[in-house]
Design a protein that fits this description.
Length: 434
Amino acid sequence: MLTPLFLNTKEGNKRLGELLNRKFTVSKEYEEPVMNILERIRTEGNKAIVDLTRRFDCPSFDVGDMMVTAKETEDAYRRVDDGFIGSLDKAIRHIEEFHRRQIPKSWIMTKEDGSIMGQVVRPVDATGLYVPGGRGGKTPLVSSVLMNAIPAVLAGVKRIILSTPPCDDKSISPYLLVAAARIGIKEIYKIGSAWAIGAMAYGTETIKPVDVIVGPGNIFVTAAKKAVSGTVGIDMVAGPSEVLVIADAQAPAEYAAADLLSQAEHDPMATVVLLTTSAKLAEVVSEALERLLDGLERRTIARKALKDNGALFVVDNLESASELANRIAPEHLELLVEDPWALLPMIRHAGAIFMGRYSPEPVGDYMAGPNHVLPTMGTARFASALGVETFLKRSSLISYSKEAFHKDADDIIRLAQTEGLTAHSLSVRVRKEN
């Protein structure tokens, strides 16, 4: 499967260099058709949506089918079992509990001269959540609904809409509809791909535009989000999934192998890396990967990811493993070691950090509470997970008293004149002289 590599060897250095230089770009092959689609949505509105949906998703689609009805949501409840609803509600509680702690507050500070400064925190008016179709509705991404919408709800966004492609019979997965209903989303549209992003960004005769668009998607969705960024806010331009596992000699090889596969099955471009202090463990993990692959439904995808973007590195010690992890800055970092808390102070760059044997990455995907929308491609060096702040704006508050103004006026004039901005200095001078 994967041959363990040692650093400071030709093969080891080559593979490490590839990891450190990994990039995710949207090629012209995708950019050009996406730009054409977005322009059609901007100029034709519903007509373009209907045409594109008929061509790619649902041949009999019409304008009247665009929005999910209350009856469809009611019917969805009858199509899911109580066990699903119980697990769903438990995940919602955990995600709400975590994200509620992220809510910032407005603040002000006053000075003796009567000046007041502060920051006003307000939610955006509207946000749009995109959820992929998932193999024609057969693999509904329920967790994406929760992870993207719950922070928006807690931020206080008044209007939250959801867009997802319809199946060929015009239906939407009942699991998605129930998940949306449980967190209060009522405005749901049967629109997919780049035209969904365009509809939420520009609006149509049916859909009012939003301020922020979040949610995962394929290369067309990603290209569309990148294109509309600036017209609206977006969560991030995310690349393929990534996991890096740091393991010591005591780590169960099967745990490490299964955790690598949990990301490899996402995408043939997924990055999966093991850093271990034990050459023996690396060999056993390689064997376990081959054995476990055969039982996966998505084994073809996982095998390609391992072949193209997988690596098993043997390192000298956990300190060097930590430093390598910081250089790679992975989306998901697992500390599969005896004392993960001792290692934590050495970790500076990771989207999410999973501590110990019983904290595999899927725990974070579904149930733990922290958001699973995370920076990829090394952007964890400067970027963070999606959270409540994604849906908030901060406005500075400035209130000068007359006393405070006169105390600072000469300094403001001097700085403005230094920059050659005479109207700036005039704005202050007319007040100072009257």
